[in-house]
Amino acid sequence: MVRAARPQTGFDAFVEAQMDDPEFVAAYRDARREVDATDRLVRTLDATRIRRGYSKARLAKLIDAKPEIVRRLFTAEAPNPTLATFAKVAAALGLRIELVPAGTTPSAAKRPSSSRRAPASRRAAPAR
């Protein structure tokens, strides 16, 4: 389906004029990356929800949230959920959120090594 081009708004004209400024371009690209990352997360969660056959209302119950929270997450033009909301929805769908180095795919990323020791409750008892 081909969408008809929407008429240029005053904001569109403003942004277009600012694209000659390298500082603006850098800030715009940073903001665009954030918006795109949020969009990818929302789309992945929604696709998983649909694949699993969960309604938005059922998912809301699973995360103990009002149905409108989940509905807005998946239908708002520019959702801006918190990381906690992402984590709850992901967990309810059997997913987890991982951070990977930029430029890698999740499957190619290695878990970060930590120089910190595990808490005493998780360390093996010394051999005697």
What can you tell me about this protein's structure?
With 128 residues, the protein is mainly α. The chain has a domain at 11-97: Orthogonal Bundle (434 Repressor (Amino-terminal Domain)). Helices cover 51% and strands 0% of the residues. The chain contains five helices and no strands. Helix 3 (56-62) crosses helix 4. It starts with 9 loop residues before the first helix and ends in a 36-residue tail after the last helix. The model is unreliable at 111-119 (pLDDT under 50).
List the helices and strands and how they pair.
Elements: H1 10-18, H2 22-51, H3 56-62, H4 67-75, H5 83-92
Helix pairs in contact: 3-4
Short précis:
With 128 residues, the protein is mainly α.
What does the main sheet amount to? none
State the order of secondary-structure elements, H for helix, E for strand: HHHHH
Q: Which range does the strand content fall in?
A: under 5%
**Mean pLDDT over the residues:** 83
Terminal CA distance? 71 Å
Instruction: State the CATH architecture of the domain at 11-97.
Output: Orthogonal Bundle
CATH topology of the domain at 11-97, by name, is: 434 Repressor (Amino-terminal Domain)
Approximately how much helix is present in the residues?
A: 40-55%
- Give the CATH class of the domain at 11-97: Mainly Alpha
Alpha-carbon Rg, integer: 21 Å
Low-confidence stretches: 111-119
CATH superfamily of the domain at 11-97: lambda repressor-like DNA-binding domains
Q: How many alpha or pi helices? A: 5
